[in-house]
Amino acid sequence: MKRLASSVALLSIIVATGLSTGCSTAPPSSNTFTRSEAGRAQSVEWGTIEAMRQVNIQNDQRGIATATGAVLGGIAGSTIGGGTRANAAGATVGAVAGGAAGNAVSGRTTPGVEFTVRLESGRAVAVVQPGSLSDYRVGDRVRVTSDGVTTRVSR
Questions:
Q1: Of 134, 132, 154, residue with least CA distance to 144
Q2: Which residues contact 55 (CB under 8 A, 6 or more apart)?
Q3: Pairing of strands 124-130, 109-119
Q4: Low-confidence spans in the chain with pLDDT less than 50
Q5: DSSP reduced 3-state for 70
Q6: What is the Cα–Cα distance from 13 to 46, expressed in whole angstroms?
Q7: Which backbone phi and psi does 95 adopt, to 5 degrees?
Q8: What pairing do the DSSP bridges indicate for beta strands 141-146 and 124-130?
Q9: Structural domains of the chain in order of their starting residue, each with its CATH number
Q10: What Rg do the C-alpha atoms of the chain give, in angstroms?
Q11: Could you read off the pLDDT of 78-112 as tens digits, one per residue?
């Protein structure tokens, strides 16, 4: 029984680590592409940066991380103690702690920049991506690429 409890706790830690790492990935920068984006045709337009502002990019999967943390914490906590009451108390405390940890991991933000770019076509677009205001300047000529899902500003 003790061996099973140790195995469940170890498995919970491994899964929680993997899920929290997956849930806290930053959005792609102008230099980072996912495997599914490689080889995908993108439209390209040229323009000039008219305005920029610093923004924070928050993880979209906040609820998933909180729920996952609560479930895994509850499983791990239920292995504590020698009786039914101790197991129930451990599960409750573990679920609360796991939910709080999952929420904290998913609540991290990534610094980013919102660009307003006037395209050569005359149309204006706003694009948010990770980065710093020091990476570009108002008046810079930039390339705006889009595959219909992800849009990036680059030089």
A1: 154
A2: 111, 112, 113, 114, 128
A3: antiparallel
A4: 4, 7-8, 10-11, 15-26
A5: helix
A6: 47
A7: -65, -45
A8: unpaired
A9: 1-27+60-107 (no CATH), 31-58+110-155 (2.40.50.100)
A10: 22
A11: 666 667 776 666 666 666 666 666 555 556 889 99
